Give the backbone structure.
Amino acid sequence: MEALLLSVGLLLGAYVLVYYNLVKGPPCRGIASLRGRTAVVTGANSGIGKMTALELARRGARVVLACRSRERGEAAAFDLRQESGNNEVIFMALDLASLASVRAFATAFLSSEPRLDILIHNAGISSCGRTREPFNLLLRVNHIGPFLLTHLLLPRLKTCAPSRVVVVSSAAHRRGRLDFTRLDCPVVGWRQELRAYADSKLANVLFARELATQLEGTGITCYAAHPGPVNSELFLRHVPGWLRPLLRPVAWLVLRAPRGGAQTPLYCALQEGIEPLSGRYFANCHVEEVPPAARDDRAAHRLWEASKRLAGLGPGEGAESDEDPQPEDPYSPSSPHPEETTASELYPSPQSSPDLSKVMRRILVKAEPELQTS
């Protein structure tokens, strides 16, 4: 009996050590008050997004929950108003699978909201489910939709600077390898889905990097954030029903709660003093180095140009619209995918040369020492 108790004690002790050192993330202790500021959080009706919105609301921000489902979005807004004591939490419809929906959201937001201080791209999918689209749905929802939304909201972000853009990525970006000849090809089968998901997360990291370069000097800073291993709806959404009862206890033991997953995105949105690290990738509330594919500036710019075409952006809608047009990338799709009129059932040119100030910014960012948390 004593041996059994000792074994149980050792197992519990080992679990506590693993949980607090590898699973549970450090808390964000950023700005205490956000009164007078406005934040948009996509996919905020559940999971990490909902916990992120809750913390922003508790700090006094006006928070817009940008969600696909009106029923779930309005229910989440009600819950957050009750829990935070902040009545400035509202729902606005957004389906990132539809470029028409993204444009409609931006038009409605810009016509009704005078401020935008924080934009957090949290919404995402890990599988196409039963949906079969004539384009890469994972790239559309996880990257192209957020890319377009950011561009359309840039005027408001600029007028409210200093402001921030946070793109929720994943450690899966380390497995990503972008193929610009097949960037928007439909995804079929679970193997392709795994690859497409990793590619979309790599696109998130490269997007934050290039966005920081494009917005140098505007007062807008940008960050890619890894929430860590999180026990959220995204984890179990596409798992077969018979397998879920077996995975739920395991997920509860070894994955972070959504509140823990929200800490790094919140850190990137709120932490003072990280402005010089704009464009970098953060995990566990500190900056983290990324593999060569995720810090390839040529690939980042090439993705930027390809994304503009896939998003259907016109000449005057880009972040760099005041600059000379860039030459066409022969390896990217020749024309943007036409916008869809209905929501989905489920939710760059290597020849161009950046100017000297952008090159210097990249050199400084790469040389910047990692910021340690207190």
Observations:
- The chain has twelve helices and eight strands.
